[in-house]
Amino acid sequence: MLGKSRAKYIQSLGQKKVRDAEGMFIAEGPKIIDELLASAKSNLQEIYAVNSWIEEHHDECRGIQLTEITEAKLQNISQLTTANQVLAVVKKFETTADIKSKGKVSLVLDTIQDPGNLGTIIRISDWFNIEQIICSKECADMYNPKVVQSTMGSFVRVRLFYTDLLEWLQEQRGIRIYAAALEGRDITTMDKINEGLIIIGNESKGISPDIMKLANVQITIPRKGKAESLNAAAATAVILSHIT
Questions:
Q1: What CATH number does residue 210 fall under?
Q2: Alpha-carbon distance 184 to 172, whole Å?
Q3: Residue 94 predicted with pLDDT over 90
Q4: What letter would DSSP give residue 79?
Q5: Which of 239, 230, 127 is nearest to 187 (CA)?
Q6: Do the beta carbons of residue 194 and residue 232 sit within 8 Å?
Q7: How many domains does the chain divide into?
Q8: Are 15 and 82 members of one domain?
Q9: N or C: which end of the chain has fewer CB within 10 A?
Q10: How far apart are CA 4 and CA 2, in angstroms?
Q11: What is the reported pTM?
């Protein structure tokens, strides 16, 4: 049974300050919960679901607190406009401050503030086998319900780190840094890379000047039409498709 106090607690996890204090977040929907059951089952603390979902997944949920609730009660605790069968309270993933950049391609995000953009970038990174994203402290919270939802479960495979971006980039010795810009080297003429940092900037302001100064190469997607710019997530997909 889902009591009022527990329902209120689950609703409160929509707020960053509560997620940070509790070390928990919310995940919703069959696709995302399936990903957690397959890849991060130990992080699942509680599952609240309608009867039809429970009947199908009961055996997979052994060892997890599993509570059957009505669709109306699920809607009451959901962060979605329309609740989708199942909601879980999940323990945040452990991260280390020791970020390894050698021998791989990593994304670096400078103040990506839109939760939908961040979630989509995580999903795109998973598609292109980018294992880690280094975020400025001004980026959206990866545990924001809108971010989690937009990843469609990819957040279980892509590690995110939040740090002082300027300081961290200054410490990266011998790693080539590529910065997405409106003017720069045409990515369609570039060879594939196996190591490097690709910086994607803020949705409206782009990459901050101090960060841009640290780039070895500015890269650009050649424009054929008249649009002023590309959505940050769309630009990320195009860049990764050409140079990774």
A1: 3.40.1280.10
A2: 22
A3: no
A4: S
A5: 239
A6: no
A7: 2
A8: yes
A9: N
A10: 7
A11: 0.95
